[in-house]
Amino acid sequence: MGFFEKILGKQIDLGEQMPIYFVSSDEDYMQRAFEQARESFKYFWRELYWERRRIVPGLDYAMVKICFLDVVDGEEVGEHMWINDIDFDGETISGTLVNEPDAVQNVKNGDRVNAKIDEMSDWMFAVGGRAYGGFSVQAMRSRMQKGELKEHDKAWGLDFGDFNDILVVYEQKEHPENLAEHPMSENMREQFEQYVKEHPSIVTDADELGFTQLHHEALAGNLALINVLLANGADKNVRTKSGKRAIDFAENLGWKDIVKALA
Description:
Blueprint: E1 5-6, E2 20-21, H1 28-39, H2 41-51, E3 61-72, E4 75-88, E5 92-97, E6 112-116, E7 120-127, E8 130-133, H3 135-141, H4 146-156, H5 183-187, H6 189-198, H7 213-220, H8 223-231, H9 246-253, H10 256-262
Antiparallel strand pairs: 1-2, 3-4, 3-7, 4-5, 5-6, 7-8
């Protein structure tokens, strides 16, 4: 079964097409890139969680790559394409397709689509023109000649850095502690404590899907805020309508310190 890898520049008009790079996803190096993306997706979602709470946006863009499957002329085909406007409920990733398909025919540019994490093949966000994540992109870059590499990066308009040293969080080299806790989580702790005291119902309120604030913070990996909620009586055993506890989300995404706090 053949697969196609696409490249799309940052937040351009949906109709504008960028260069397409073809590569077989059956190759070991590309499969490993997909696995790395799935293993580290938690950092993407954590960053997007905080982006939606910033007064001034910090991200140039944030996108996820999904593998779309279809049967065309009796043959199964797949195409890896990017989506943006991402949402995530702990099990399903949803977003808007920003590529025009070449192989599959069951989706089109602009469609709202859903996918499970194991159908995701990459994620990437950019801050100040610097890319984070982008494992499949970096895998392709590692196979390019110098001239190709320059052309590829120019098409994206991004600094991808070293394909042998992929960053997953902002200022990872300067502040490696950002891997364990997002700086905004620590910075917001006192303000969040005050908010909980003034609005105690936040500890127990649930949305239409049964998510409490504890569920949301567990998904986003915010240990500091989880500790505040627990100190103010948050129930660790409350389940969403799909039957998930906060610890279930933390375990699925690999937030080990949060699993300990909720155990």
